[in-house]
Design goal:
194 residues; mainly alpha; two-stranded antiparallel sheet
């Protein structure tokens, strides 16, 4: 039943001797269930040609605000990956997003730094993914009201794109906007203008 979709009908908790067992009743959904076909199509669209896995499910759950469940699926997927699998970067980034969304900023920074470390081992130092991670680190510092650290991370993200000769990459606008907002917050208006 690989690739099958089930509908949860009922969850009964507190079974077993220690009360930690749950009984879950599910129904196998066929190709005629419109709601689940829409969800599956949405997940395929979000992932492009990539396979749908626990990370993509975690991403959908995170976007729905189901952070605990999203985190569980991401950790489960992380356990399935080898230590050198490049998908570890994506999982750490998703976990960083989840932690930031739940205002666990130090945990988020730790996860983004793990993503950065993994990414630097498997990608060239001027890869766009590394720039995106630096930007994410900056956004967490911003959320922590640490503007100087945020500014440094945003500048690092831009430096990576410039080093890769990607000055016109679509991410450059976001990174420059973040720098502008940081300078504006610090009331350094002349520096906020690029």
């Amino acid at each position: 039943m690989l690739g099958s979709i089930f509908q949860l009908n009922e969850v009964e908790r507190n079974h077993g001797e220690d009360g930690k067992l749950a009984i879950i009743r599910m129904s196998l959904c066929g190709n005629t269930n419109d709601d689940f076909n829409k969800l599956y199509d949405y997940m395929k669209e979000q992932n492009g040609a990539e396979e749908i896995n626990l990370l993509s499910l975690g991403h959908v759950l995170c976007s729905m605000g189901q952070f605990n469940l999203a985190e569980q699926y991401c950790h489960r997927f992380l356990k399935e990956l080898s230590l050198v699998d490049s998908l570890r970067v994506d999982v750490y980034c998703e976990l960083g997003i989840i932690a930031k969304s739940t205002e666990q900023y130090d945990k988020s920074l730790e996860l983004y730094h793990k993503a950065l470390e993994c990414s630097m081992q498997s990608r060239p130092s001027d890869h766009v993914a590394i720039a995106n991670i630096y930007n994410s680190i900056g956004e967490v510092h911003w959320a922590k009201d640490e503007q100087n650290q945020a500014l440094e991370s945003f500048k690092q993200a831009i430096a990576i794109l410039e080093q890769a000769h990607l000055g016109m990459h679509h991410a450059m606008a976001l990174f420059q906007d973040n720098i502008g907002r940081a300078y504006e917050y610090q009331k350094k208006y002349s520096e906020a203008v690029v």
